[in-house]
Amino acid sequence: MPKKPSGGGLSPAQQAAKFLGVSVLAGAVMAGIALPAVGALGLAAKGSVESFDELPANMKTPPLSQRTTILDAQGGTIATVYSRDRTVVELKDISPYMQKAIVAIEDARFYQHGAVDLKGVLRALNKNAQSGGVAEGASTLTQQYVKNVFVEEAGDDPTKVAQATQQTIGRKIKELKYAIQVEEELGKKRILENYLNITFFGQQAYGVEAAAQRYFSKHAKNLNVQESALLAGIVQSPSRFDPVNDETEATKRRNIVLQRMAEVGDISQTEADKAKETPLGLKVSKPKNGCITAVKGAGFFCDYVRAVFLSDPVFGKTKEDRAKVWNQGGLTIRTTMDPQAQDSVQQSVKDHVNQSDEVATAATIVEPGTGKILAMGQSRPYGFGKNETQINLSVDQAMGGGLGFQPGSTFKPIVAAAAIEGGMPATKSYRSPYEMEYPHPIAQCDGQSWNESGATLTNENESEDGPYSMKEATAKSVNTYFVEMIAEIGICPVTEMAKKMGVARADGGKMEQAPSIALGTQEMSPLTMANGYATFASRGMYCTPIAIESISQRIGGETKSLEVPKSTCSRAMSETTADTVNTLLRGVVEDGTGKQAGLGSRPSAGKTGTTDERYAAWFVGYTPNMAGAVWVGDPAHERKMEGISIGGVWHDKVFGGQVPGPIWGDMMTGALEGKEVLDFNLIDIPDAPKDKDRDRDKGRGDDDGDNGDDNGAGGVTGGGTFPEPSFSIPEGFIQGNDGGPGNGNGNGNGGGNFP
Question: pTM for this one?
Answer without folding.
Answer: 0.75
